[in-house]
Amino acid sequence: MHSSFQYKDEEFHMGGVSLAKIAESVGTPFYVYSYEFLKDSFTAYKEAFSAMDTLICYSVKANSNLAVLKAFSDLGSGYDIVSGGELLRVKRAGGDPGKVVFSGVGKTREEMKAAIEAGILFFNVESEEELHELNSVGIELGKKAPVALRVNPDIDPKTHPYISTGFKKSKFGIEIGRAFEVYKEANKMEGIDVMAIDAHIGSQIFDLTPFVDSVKKLISLADDLVREGINIQYIDIGGGLGISYKLDDKPPHPSMYADIVMKEFSGKPYKLVLEPGRSLMGNSGMLVTKVLYLKEGTAKKFVIVDAAMNDLIRPAFYESYHEILPVIRGSEDKDVVDVVGPICESGDFLAQDRELPKVSSGDLLAVLSAGAYGFVMSSNYNTRPRVAEVMVKGDQFSVIRERETYDDLLKLEQIPDFL
Ligand code: LLP
Questions:
Q1: Is 126 in the pocket of ligand 1 (CB under 6 A)?
Q2: Is 242 in the pocket of ligand 1 (CB under 6 A)?
Q3: CB of 278 closer than 6 A to ligand 1?
Q4: Of 3.40.50.150, 3.20.20.10, 1.10.1240.10, 3.40.50.2300, which CATH number belongs to 104-274?
Q5: Whole-model pTM?
Q6: The predicted structure's pLDDT at residue 1
Q7: DSSP class of residue 202?
Q8: Is 57 among the residues known to form the active site?
Q9: Are 204 and 165 in contact (CB under 8 A)?
């Protein structure tokens, strides 16, 4: 755990702020992110890759709050986006569109136009049809769209199947065997300016070998293209570095990742682009929830809390493990429990068969490693307002997204006249 997360007088603190104090002020549940943690994570990447011309493009989908984006932009980050909405967020946060790369298999014409007009660094084009569409948008605007092809290197990243993307069978990218031909075609298009190669093989990756395999394939393709007279300036190797979800997990440090990547790039003319998301934000954030009831069946003990799968879907969706700690340390006695939410689904759990210190109604629990793919994947299922988000910096904290109200939830709905 980061040094700024600790118990002081038995109260769990993020930096100089007690989580219990935040709960008093904003209510529960809430997400809370540490500015210091995200800054240190970004700096670790920056230092690790400092020997190379590298642009770190924070992957906005991991946590797209404007305050988070502003913090990264102040640190010099660029952005990996996957929608027009994310582009708008980057602009609202004061980010530099010239440091934006745009991935995703289903970009619309409107999104393409907005990104060309904003002056993004390049598109990661994921299919031949998309390339033709982008070319026609470029021509319509009288501009050249800057392009990388996202290639699918057919590599097993050895992670959860739902977050593996570089397999031949996945929907992402253009098969690497076909890429050379598509590049030659793209290079002749009037509305396209070819400048880069991209791949992203998956997420929550602990084994560095798949990264090496992917980088080797990308560099070899880039060399072939340059020999063909195609001007490849950037190689974007995607994101995917894993983080610790269990306190004793040992993910590779960005410096280990940098060493193996930079070794492959040594002597090559290409600039490097990275798209990390989880490894910048995941462990900077927590979901804080309150115990509502305890319920003891003959087969299981349940701790029913006020946060649910709509707030943090990762346990239900990927069977992922998140450490849970009491916000106020009390009982030394332990119980094996399921921590569940109020939603009417058996999949609504934050932890199963987990040994936790005994808790009572009203106690607060911190669900760790929830800074990436936490709030952004939350929903209003069961007409539950999405929770507040808070940022902590030093001994200050501030709400960076208000808790939704019932009015927020209902305001777009209407009952038609024919009813
Ligand atoms: N670049 C592209 C094109 C991506 O699709 C992703 C993540 C990233 C970068 C950032 O990957 P990261 O560094 O965060 O691993 N919701 C899942 C994770 C989905 C990842 C989707 N793509 C989860 O909660 O585990």
A1: no
A2: no
A3: yes
A4: 3.20.20.10
A5: 0.97
A6: 67
A7: B
A8: no
A9: no
